[in-house]
Amino acid sequence: MIHIFVNALAASAGGGLTYVRNVIPRLALREGIRTTVFLAGTLRGEIRDSPSVTLLQAECPANSGKRFWFEQRNLPTLIRASGADVLLSTGNFALYGSPVPQILLSRNALYISSDFFRDLRARGDYKLWLDTEVKAVIARWSVRAADCTVAPSAAFAGELQRWTGRNVVCMHHGFDHEAFFREPAPLPQDVQTQLSATAGSLCLLFVSHYNYYRNFETLIRAIAIVKKKLYPRKVRLVLTCKLRSKDNPGDYHADAAADLVEQLSLGEEVVELGAVSYASLHHVYRACDLYVTPAYAETFAHPLVEAMASNLPVIASDLAVHREICGEAARYFPRFSPEILAEQIIQASQSPEQLTAMREMGQRRSRDFSWDKHVEELVSLARRLARKDSTR
Questions:
Q1: What pairing do the DSSP bridges indicate for beta strands 270-272 and 330-333?
Q2: Alpha helix locations (H) across the chain?
Q3: What's the gap between Cα 219 and its chain centre?
Q4: For FRET with 384, which of 93, 203, 283, 328 sits at 20 to 30 Å CA-CA?
Q5: pTM to 2 decimals?
Q6: 307 in helix, strand or coil?
């Protein structure tokens, strides 16, 4: 029997939420595993009760700095009281002086992204620049403080090793084909109406809330080029967000992207669905023709696997992480080149043979990612650390 304490306070959106909603149920099903999960009250509905899983709720500060200090003050006592053998920290920051061996999940590429810091300076967003610099210091210390750090891709693990001088283990995140397509939840009527209006167009999809590092502006500029070159054929870019700052998590200002859409007269071409629930997201993938991501920083990118599993050909920025996840199933372009991105979109859309080949390769590649395999590797690591600690 091994008891794992999971600190999931940082799991509120994006990859963190995807991770927790997939890993905790699988830990609950494994024999000889007890799990205690420390989570924010807003996440309570995402995790089902189980005899082998104990949920500890907290009203945690939304600010990441305050949350860090909240964890440092409260976690040691809770871990000792739970009788846990190993701590799994899921939010990029480690616990100082953990009473048990600690596994740190690191999945934020921004702290070591020169592109991101350059982007912040260019936008004049010095508040976010300073905030990220401070977090980067804590993140580097965290990798050095943890007993073992796990990254979701080999490419990002290598970057972390060079940045910290510490060994980092790669454990690919997974994908659950059956669960992703099983949910019968229909799309809201307004979303379905927007998607239905794209019929007959070349429909491109990008799944993300608005932030800077997903590089929306490069994609928007590419759409203007595609619109011109494919005329009279229509093109639509479907976004699972709204280009309004208040409608997105974090401190990112979406005004520049919204202004760019207006300047390039793309009000009809850019379709802003807003956030779509994970249970009905598969309907959106299957309503589109191509998946496109221009991100300039990434650690895994779950939507790439979701797109490949949905028979959607992928065009991705040329990052080592993207090549690791998609391999030959995708086409790539320099991350800040709207011209080459547009060229790749046009070439792919005009070659049915290539699209068929990309779909087949994507389907095969998506099968390589398994949450069951990830959890098996994670539990094996936890057992090794627990055994090592017991012999001290």
A1: unpaired
A2: 14-29, 64-82, 114-123, 126-145, 154-164, 177-182, 189-196, 216-230, 255-263, 281-286, 302-309, 320-326, 338-349, 352-366, 371-390
A3: 18
A4: 93
A5: 0.92
A6: helix
What does the pLDDT read at residue 364? Answer: 96
Give the residue carrying structure tokens 């080949």. Answer: 357
Local structure of residue 146 (DSSP, 8 states): S
Is 232 in a helix, a strand, or coil? coil
**What distance in Å separates the CA atoms of residue 261 and residue 9, rounded to the nearest whole number?**
36
Contact (Cβ atoms closer than 8 angstroms) between residue 293 and residue 101 = no
- Cβ count near 203 (within 10 Å): 18
DSSP H helices, 146-184, are 154-164, 177-182
Domains located in the chain, CATH noted: 2-174+370-390 (3.40.50.2000), 179-366 (3.40.50.2000)
**What is the distance between the terminal CA atoms of the chain, rounded to a whole angstrom?**
19
- Compute CA 280 distance to the chain's CA centroid, rounded to the nearest angstrom: 17
Tokens encoding 87:
């701590």
- Average of per-residue pLDDT across 99-105: 95
Residue 14 has pLDDT above 90, yes or no: no
Q: Give the whole-angstrom CA distance, residue 6 versus residue 180.
A: 24
**Cα–chain center distance at 361:** 22
